[in-house]
Request: fold
Amino acid sequence: MTETAPEPDGRIVVDQLTKVFGGKVRAVDRLSFTVEPGSVTGFLGPNGAGKTTTLRMVLGLVHPTAGTATISGVAYKSLRDPISHVGAALESSSFHPARSGRNHLRIQCIAAGLPLERADQVLETVGLAAAGKRKVRGYSLGMRQRLGLAAALIGDPRVLVLDEPANGLDPDGIRWLRGFFKHLASEGRSVLVSSHQLNEVQEIADRVVILNRGQLVRSGSIRELLADTDSVLVRGPDLGPLDAALRAHGFNPTQTGPTSFVVQGIETEHVGHLAFGAGVELHELSKQGFDLEDLFFQLTAEQAPGAPTMGSAQ
Amino acid sequence: MTRAMIRLVRAEFVKLRTTQVWFWLLIAALGISVLAVLGNFLSDPGIRSARDVPQIFANSDIACLAVFVLGVLGVTTEFRYQTITPTVLITPSRWTLITAKMIAYALLGILYALACVALQLAMTLPWLATRNISFDLGDPDLRRALFGLFLVLALYGIIGLGVGALLKNQIVAVTLGVIFLLILQNLLAAIPGVRHAWPYMPAGANAAILNSQSNAPDTVTILSPAAGVVVLLLWAFIPALLGAGITMNRDIT
Reply:
């Protein structure tokens, strides 16, 4: 592979990435996805899905068993001035308790050759300026998360990799974090943010990558994923003939109650037309708003242990 | 040294300065140095002529324990508080990282040696004056004792780093290291047969570098100063390089 002047576009490419711990635990299994420059990508999955291991492989902290992860075309450790290219916030506790938040950041400035003023600037950005000179020992979990985000921003990177940044934040903090993400995206930065809580990501992410048991469940834009799973709710006293008509057209209604069912992947007009043709009385015909959370639970529930991998719809 | 390396060495110093451990270990090193001076003057036969002056400094090498512990903490604290993550994110090459730490802790050992020697001189010079003993920096034995002390303290910083990098766990590394340096080496020296390995132990290397045969167990001859330097360099670099190559190259999770 030639590395002649890779275009520093900030694209993250994960290709067939695999990590086996201790010879048997497949934490990440042939995972492939791409984070496009200038987008916010939610990296979703239940706890233990392999999100943290994947992010650590992207950052060169964990060595992959197989596969590659590149940022702007090269491995993290081949980046020149890595923290000016990629900022990372991985855990909320990677600070010496007896050191002040500001000193922690200043050490990073010195090691990376950045001006010391950056420490105060990023403390300001994350709203920690007043607490900067206090020892980290006295910080709340939310303050540590903010300090971690400040550290991620210190090199003014175009790519941000954030692992569960909302963990431990109170509702105020989560609202602040949403605004913070919007601010980052408006500056054209690429953000890869992991979460096990979808509502944190749903509003701010352009795209999502959903992971379960180390394998890709699905990836794509949120709109695409939701379009796939839109459904129509039908309610009426006797839906038998409509059910038969739908099945005859290749749809598969799911009974939700004695007088109702839902149909996936169909428009309301189509159902209405079939009901009219079958002479079925309807009391309700409505499109079901399907949110990401439902999708997430649906997708991850399908991945029962030992079940075959779902086809990854790129 | 490249500019990047100078930055990393500076960062190591700031890491130390922004916590308190360097201060308490300096106090410990100074305390040991004071005891060494007192011991030399008050013991029998003690310091009776200019020929005895070098042994004051040659017998002060236990201060290396403080520098050793500092070196151990220089690596293990990063693992304990997970600051290793940001450290490695800034410097993905673990070789560059361990090199910067080795330079920083060797310099730190020299700074500790400076502080210890300054305090010892402040005590020794007036005391010698009261006994009408001259203090002659031209004395090659005295020069060697002083220079040897600087070298020993510099290298124990690196030994500490290596032991810390290999063992990773702060309490385990400090405890095992101190037990080995303080007790185990001397126990080995008490066993006939095994005691002839003593010159190749860190304590034996110290004695060779500082030319203090009196510190060696009976019937054991210390190495030449040059051989002592080589032995101590091996003790310093082998664990540090193994630590960088094996332990520090492991996954950081």
Summary: The two ends of chain A are 25 Å apart (CA to CA). Chain A has a mean pLDDT of 86. The interface with chain B takes residues 52-53, 56, 59-63, 76-77, 79, 82-83, 88, 90-91, 93-100, 103-104, 106-108, 110-113, 151 of chain A (CB under 8 Å). Chain A is about 30% helix and 25% strand.
